[in-house]
Amino acid sequence: xxxxxxxxxxxxxxxxxxxxxxxxxxxxxxxxxxxxSNIVLLSIPNEEYSLxxxxxxxxxxxxxxxxxxxxxxxxxxxxxxxGMTSLVAxxxxxxxxxxxxxxxxxxxxxxxxxxxxxxxxRSIMQMAGTGLRVRAKVFQDILRHAPHLRAELCRxxxxxxxxxAQLAACNRLHEIDQRLARWLxxxxxxxxxxxxxxxxxxxxxxxxxxxxxxxxxxxxxxxxGLIENQRGTVRLLNRKSLEGAAxxxxxxxxxxxxxxxxx
Length: 263
Fold this sequence. Notes:
Layout: H1 3-15, H2 46-52, E1 57-61, E2 66-68, E3 76-80, E4 84-90, E5 96-102, E6 122-127, E7 129-135, H3 136-143, H4 147-173, H5 176-191, E8 195-196, H6 200-207, H7 211-223, E9 227-230, E10 233-236, H8 239-245, H9 248-260
Antiparallel strand pairs: 1-7, 2-6, 3-7, 4-5, 4-6, 8-10, 9-10
Helix pairs in contact: 1-9, 4-9, 5-7, 5-8, 5-9, 6-7
């Protein structure tokens, strides 16, 4: 049995017993009366949510907006309601590769959990959305009095760490068309839409490869009837077959979804 197959079995065993339990989207509102969809915020008890609620600021998160830069001070913790954030490792020569993604299942600014005020990755909105932000100092103060919030964020950190490790293996071991299929599926898991507003240039940055390679891989998937490439958008046509075209890493990552509160 190879390492990836063993990893799939271990991940399945870990993910099954920690299935997240949370209120349905819209069961809570922010201070402005808008519905909350963030799974972490829907998973904590009312007493702890009441501590956060007065300090949560609703924000629009347009595509390509940078929330945090590596090495720079983190001013806010972000809880996405919609959209998706990429965590990107940057090289000195300008090259980059995505090492993780965060949607409604988590929080952006996890360094704050450990009392740190700086991170090592760029956090950039890959798909536009909305969310709630809390000033870093306020968040860290509240966290000391919110054990359930700490536990939910620790769960997210563990499951997200497994995801990051699997992506590292995927980027090293699998072909670009398999990685592209896996990546598109992970995006759809978080945005619940068959239309993904993504350019080939941005896909190339996220996958750590050249644009021509991404265009060729996208053409392979399109010719197989799995996706449709439109200008600045990718439409998923056949999710089941796309899962078959993805590498086994997506099967491993799927097992994490229950622990993250994703379907």
